[in-house]
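Q: Please design a sequence for this.
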């Protein structure tokens, strides 16, 4: 473990919330240090076209995040490739310990650790994870050229993944537990017009079936939610897209959370239940969970951290 390093503002996370907070905190001369975590650039690095980032009618998610990183760096943020493994918020300055052994003593902390994919939690899903079961079409879609693929879910992610996978697959079956998608209308429209996609309504994944040696998927068993009838769909790849859960491990025992683990912030604010600790983006937002709203909250967090430090130093 190295000697603790004092920083005015420590930003944890490198998605739209973290990088926006970094731009604002740098311009406030707070000399922020941003820790990128295991997924530099955050969730948008796992997608392709982003069509709702203002100013870009279409931009590739990974490109947008590289631009945000460059912007934060250009404004003066120190960007560190590391993961915070422990965060002690019991007294100020707060103590953050990183995987590398680095220790930070921070006068204010901006939490922007975002969210990550949820899994169904069935044993066969776990068994074939990385061997035919995936939660990232842009990462793994290429492996299924000319194959039949199954996507589970009915939100924006599931629909986007299904559409993207038609670039590789011969057929995509979208298995959804209701007969109504919660994705945006424009995406639903594209899905319905795509001849390679077949929705399967009122069904849930019962079991992933495959071979042990080599480990690989051959089919899925799906169950009708009303009749209970189980049917089998041949497939080589299963993409689980049933939503995201907040990455709250660092603070779950220290901060107030609600709605399944989202960090509670004060109304119209990013202030958490501990003064000097601010939370922005998908970690706190159970409602909108968009890049632009995350960026907006990152801005708020930096402005609020600046005000907090001015009042408390
Ligand atoms: P995230 O992007 O989740 O980033 C979290 C960051 O925290 C990561 O950098 C991670 O490495 C870091 N981190 C986590 N734990 C630690 C730790 N212990 N130490 C250090 N760092 C840590 N939104 C749109 O507006 N338009 C879209 O088109 C769109 N498409 C999407 C497509 C997909 C496939 C997905 C999954 C999401 C999409 N979204 C889209 C939603 C959007 O990506 C999120 O709302 C947004 O990325 C949330 O930003 P964030 O900064 O809160 O966190
Ligand atoms: P989501 O909107 O929460 O949708 C999750 C989907 O999975 C729902 O259709 C849900 O069914 C289904 N589901 C949940 N648990 C299930 C289970 N155990 N078994 C079967 N199905 C289950 O999640 P998301 O699609 O990942 O989107 C997350 C956030 O990112 C959203 O705010 C979204 O707008 C945003 N996002 C935006 C874009 C974009 O702007 N283009 C793209 C991707 C993501 P029900 O519908 O029945 O609840």
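A: Design:
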């Amino acid at each position: 473990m190295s000697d603790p390093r004092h920083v005015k503002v420590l930003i944890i996370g490198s998605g739209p919330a973290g990088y926006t907070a970094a731009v604002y905190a740098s311009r406030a001369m707070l000399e922020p240090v941003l820790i990128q975590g295991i997924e530099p650039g955050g969730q948008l690095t796992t997608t392709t076209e982003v069509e709702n980032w203002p100013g870009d009618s279409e931009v590739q998610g990974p490109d947008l995040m590289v631009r945000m990183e460059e912007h934060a760096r250009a404004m003066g943020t120190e960007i560190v490739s590391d993961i915070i493994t422990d965060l002690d918020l019991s007294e100020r300055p707060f103590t953050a310990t990183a995987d590398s052994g680095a220790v930070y003593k921070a006068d204010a902390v901006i939490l922007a650790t975002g969210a990550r994919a949820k899994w169904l939690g069935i044993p066969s899903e776990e068994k074939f994870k990385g061997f035919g079961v995936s939660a990232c079409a842009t990462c793994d879609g290429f492996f299924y050229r000319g194959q039949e693929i199954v996507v589970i879910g009915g939100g924006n992610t599931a629909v986007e993944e299904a559409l993207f996978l038609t670039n590789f697959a011969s057929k995509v079956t979208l298995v959804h537990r209701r007969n109504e998608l919660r994705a945006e209308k424009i995406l639903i429209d594209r899905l319905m017009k795509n001849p390679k996609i077949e929705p399967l309504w009122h069904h849930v994944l019962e079991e992933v079936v495959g071979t042990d040696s080599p480990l690989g998927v051959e089919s899925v068993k799906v169950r009708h939610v009303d009749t209970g009838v189980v049917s089998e769909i041949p497939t080589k790849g299963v993409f689980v897209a049933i939503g995201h859960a907040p990455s709250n491990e660092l603070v779950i025992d220290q901060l107030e959370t609600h709605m399944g683990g989202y960090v509670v912030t004060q109304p119209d604010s990013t202030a958490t239940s501990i003064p000097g600790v601010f939370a922005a983006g998908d970690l706190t937002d159970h409602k909108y969970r968009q890049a632009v709203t995350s960026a907006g909250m990152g801005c708020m967090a930096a402005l609020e951290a600046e005000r907090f430090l001015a009042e408390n130093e």
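Q: Thanks. Anything notable?
A: The helical segments are 16-27, 61-75, 123-128, 137-140, 156-165, 185-193, 291-312. Residues 12-18, 35-40, 42-44, 46-47, 50, 52, 83-84, 112-115, 157, 160, 247, 250, 281-283, 289-292, 294 surround flavin-adenine dinucleotide (ligand 1) (CB under 6 Å).
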